[in-house]
Write a structure and sequence with these properties.
By secondary structure, the protein is an alpha/beta fold. The strands form two sheets. It has a seven-stranded parallel β-sheet with strand order 5-4-3-6-7-8-9, sandwiched between helices. It is globular. The protein has helices at residues 9-12, 33-38, 50-65, 68-76, 100-111, 125-130, 138-144, 164-168, 187-196, 235-253; strands at 20-22, 42-44, 92-96, 115-119, 134-135, 147-150, 175-178, 201-204, 224-226. Helix 9 links the parallel strand 7 (175-178) and strand 8.
Length: 263
């Protein structure tokens, strides 16, 4: 279910016969869980796929740094090399968020022999160290990282947490990556930074407004790789989603619901 069509209290109160809502994943901020509970509506989830998003994030990073779209087009158009790729080895990855997804990002970064900086509102040095990262201030992360990648959940406290000021601290050679939620970032400021060459580029799987409007200026963003919120979309994950959905419905009908989100 997309967040642009939320099941708010107003909507739920119109559904007199509703007994069960099944959503993919184990959270959905678009559903008023409290109202559903009050009305006796059970909300069940499915198993997720954290590794899927991590794989896609690294695919974007590697494609951006190795200029894969440009070089692939060169080959198809009868040309040859026109760019120079960049190394991951010895570079610095800045993780905005070191939770379930961020820690997996750090694991891969260590395999590439990268330096890892991390920041989130409640991150401690001890926790960061256990994942091979160094906890730093937000200012330092944006100033020193070669790649800044966002891995936070969207909430009232994190909405717009990456500001124009943060982006202005990035090196001209740095790139910005977001596969979490578009609303975490000041998108207008990010677009301005990329177009002005204040940063080297961006790799984005998420946007503040989804689906991205046809006339959005983000569609023509230079030095960028854009994908349509498909970081989680894989055959394996969809098999898991669909089998869990069937099980959620069957177990609810049997009177023993599983993966209940609003108990």
């Amino acid at each position: 279910m997309r967040e642009r069509t939320p099941l708010t209290r107003v909507r739920l109160e119109r559904l007199d016969n509703l007994k069960l809502i099944v959503t993919t994943g184990m959270e959905n901020r678009a559903i008023d869980m409290g109202c559903a509970h009050e009305r006796g509506v059970t909300v069940c989830g499915t198993r997720g796929g954290l590794s899927n998003a991590v794989e896609h994030t690294w695919a974007l990073i590697l494609s951006l740094l190795r200029n894969l779209p440009t070089e692939e087009n060169n080959i198809r158009n009868g040309g040859w090399q026109t760019t120079i790729g960049r190394d991951l080895f010895g570079s610095t990855l800045g993780l905005v968020g070191l939770g379930r997804t961020g820690t997996r990002m750090a694991r891969v970064a260590r395999a590439f022999d990268m330096n890892i900086l991390a920041w989130s509102p409640h991150l401690t040095p001890e926790v960061a160290e256990t994942h091979g990262a160094t906890a730093v201030s937000k200012d330092r992360l944006f100033a020193e990282s070669d790649i800044v990648s966002v891995h936070l959940q969207l909430s009232d406290s994190t909405r717009g947490i990456v500001t124009a000021t943060d982006l202005s601290r990035m090196k001209k050679s740095s790139v910005f990556v977001n596969t979490s939620r578009g609303a975490l970032v000041d998108e207008a400021a990010l677009e301005k930074a990329v177009r002005a060459g204040s940063i080297a580029g961006a790799a984005l799987d998420v946007f503040a407004n989804e689906p991205l409007p046809v006339d959005s200026t983000m569609r023509s963003l230079p030095n960028s790789i854009l994908t349509p919120h498909v970081g989680y979309v894989t055959e394996g994950l969809y098999r898991r989603f669909f089998s869990d959905i069937v099980e959620d419905i069957a177990m609810h009908l049997a009177g023993t619901p599983v993966r209940v989100l609003n108990s």
